[in-house]
Amino acid sequence: MNSLEKIQQENKLGKLNEYLKEIVYGGNDGIVTTFAVVAGFSGANVSQNDALSLSFLTVLLFGFANLFSDALSMALGNYLSIRAQRDVYKEIKIKESGKIQNIPEKEELETVTLLKSEGFSEEDANTLTQIYKKNPNYWLNWMMNNEYEMVDTTNINPAYTALATFLAFITFGAIPLIPFILLKENTDVAFSYSILGVVVALVMLGLLKWKVIKTGLVRSVLEILVIGGTAASVAYLVGLAFQGV
């Protein structure tokens, strides 16, 4: 293994790192989406209405319908978003490459300006620009990062990111519904366990975030708990607002 391969191997991100954003966002949205159905029904106290009885079947029907439809919608949205970002990046990169080849003087001035804005002196900025010119590919990538502030997404597989989103959404989103499967004869108790399940799921998501990116444990868990808990509480309050309507 040569030096470059060794560096790449040492700094290679694991699969969890690569798809952490999809797992966290997908998992959090899945939890909130399904609990919103459960909390909405409970908050509205629909068990007092015979036509809208809060039966386990009602919760499971709406819960799983929302779970799978929203998971698919979010995954497809993620897929299309990545595809669009890749297309835009490629288009702009082609245009920038043409500028470097056809009007290099203009690109040199832009490079010097950008370097000076980063704190380099006029002399150092000009020296670095001349160095960049010797490696057009590096210069092009540098301009994409610094002039357009665009991240290269061409190496991201949109199908994998969509799949990671979908699986995270389904896995974490099913947790609030599990009590209604196991305790189908007592929906009040099931709802209490569903709340506990939401807290546990959010903590698991926070621990996963902490484990992967190595930020503070308390901060990682609290961020997920506060964001997810707030969204879940809003769903319950909305249902409560419709009580008796």
Automatic annotation (TrEMBL):
Provide the primary localization.
Answer: membrane
The UniProt entry, under Pfam families, shows:
VIT1
**Where found?**
Endomembrane system
Q: Name one GO cellular component term.
A: endomembrane system
Q: Which residues cross the membrane?
A: 51-76, 160-183, 189-208, 220-242
**What molecular function terms (GO) are annotated for this protein?**
manganese ion transmembrane transporter activity
Give the membrane topology, semicolon-separated if more than one: Multi-pass membrane protein
The UniProt keyword set, sorted, is: Membrane, Transmembrane, Transmembrane helix
GO biological processes:
intracellular manganese ion homeostasis
The protein's name is: VIT1/CCC1 transporter family protein
